[in-house]
Specification:
Blueprint (H helix, E strand, L loop, with lengths): L25 H31 L6 H25 L8 H35 L4 H4 L2 H22 L1 H5 L12 E2 L3 H39 L6 H40 L3 E2 L5 H18 L4 H11 L15
Length: about 325
């Protein structure tokens, strides 16, 4: 039987109510700090660069880039939330029950917003590939702003309903001091699983499969007519190639996104309570890792971002007329 000396408590002064620290090797703790710290730095830095770039340069104020901007904002806050997970590495929550609830709710809200933005970006690519002639009329800045606003507002409303029990029964599921648990029931977890994960992922996969089929058919058509292409036609081919390249990038993002998000939702669905303790650090890392990958996959592949990055690093962005610079 373990003695008090052998057991490490989160709050040693509270012998009867404190949670026990999970036993971990020094190597595991150090690696957890390194991984989570890297995710925080990458997510906040890269997404902040995306936010500054798209917001500052007027030439980049297109419907597609507005969607990328919204995704970057949500991913930026995801990176900030990782800081709380770093404080939770030793398996103890030191910020109290109210902050635990705030952290859990913000995490669910921001993650849902990120997933919603992913759906909107996939829908944008779907229209661009499958109906390019009507893209400029169907996808306008005004409509994109409305969709983005609905995405954020809908995430807040839905997660507020799902986590309503958390606000009404703050700390009711806490069995010991130093634990951070999100109380809930099977029905709310099932609803969250379908509306926050299965539903959006199904939409993304269906849209992208359609995009992939159309992109392949376009590529075959271009190869079969490449000899007869005129100078004007070659410009059209280049445009189609750029759209197909964007579709391929989207395919890679979808696969990486599923790899990052699936482990977390599988654990949440298979357990009755959404425990955010030290044992789930890996799942949290995978969930938050997508926030670092998104800006790399969506934005860093475009030449205009590298031009903007050069202007930012050289402080040319501070010039009064820098927002009018020719980026494209």
């Amino acid at each position: 039987m373990e003695t008090l000396e052998e057991v490490e408590l989160c709050f040693p002064q509270l012998l009867n109510t404190s949670c026990k620290k999970p036993k971990r090797s020094h190597f595991e703790v150090i690696m957890s700090y390194i991984i989570l710290s890297s995710i925080t730095v990458l997510s906040t830095t890269l997404n902040l660069l995306v936010i500054v770039t798209i917001s500052h340069f007027k030439q980049l104020h297109t419907p597609t880039n507005l969607l990328l901007l919204s995704l970057a904002v949500s991913d930026f806050f995801v990176g900030l939330l990782v800081f709380f997970q770093i404080m939770f590495i030793d398996g103890c929550w030191y910020l109290g029950d109210p902050m635990c609830i705030v952290y859990l709710c913000l995490g669910c809200f921001i993650t849902a917003s990120s997933v919603g933005n992913m759906v909107l970006i996939c829908a944008d690519r779907y229209v661009a590939i499958c109906d390019p002639l009507h893209y400029s009329t169907k996808v306008t800045q005004k409509r994109v702003k409305v969709c983005v606003s609905l995405c954020w507002i809908g995430s807040v409303i839905f997660q507020s309903l799902v986590l309503k029990n958390n606000f009404e029964n703050t700390g009711s599921a806490i069995s010991c001091t130093g634990e951070c648990v999100a109380p809930g029931n099977y029905i709310t977890q099932l609803a969250d699983l379908f509306l926050s994960f299965i539903g959006p992922v199904t939409v993304i996969i269906v849209l992208y499969m359609r995009v992939f089929v159309v992109a392949v058919s376009q590529a075959r058509a271009m190869r079969s007519h490449i000899v007869a292409v005129t100078l004007q036609g070659s410009v059209k081919v280049n445009v189609k190639k750029s759209e197909i390249k964007a579709a391929r990038t989207l395919g890679v993002v979808v696969v990486v996104f599923l790899m990052c998000v699936c482990p977390y939702y599988i654990v949440v669905f298979t357990t009755r309570d959404a425990l955010l303790d030290g044992s789930s650090t890996f799942m949290i890392c995978m969930l938050y890792l997508s926030a670092s990958i998104n800006p790399l996959m969506y934005v860093f592949v475009y030449p205009w971002f590298r031009k903007c990055l050069k202007l930012i690093v050289t402080l040319e962005i501070l010039r009064p007329d820098s927002c009018e610079a020719n980026i494209l």
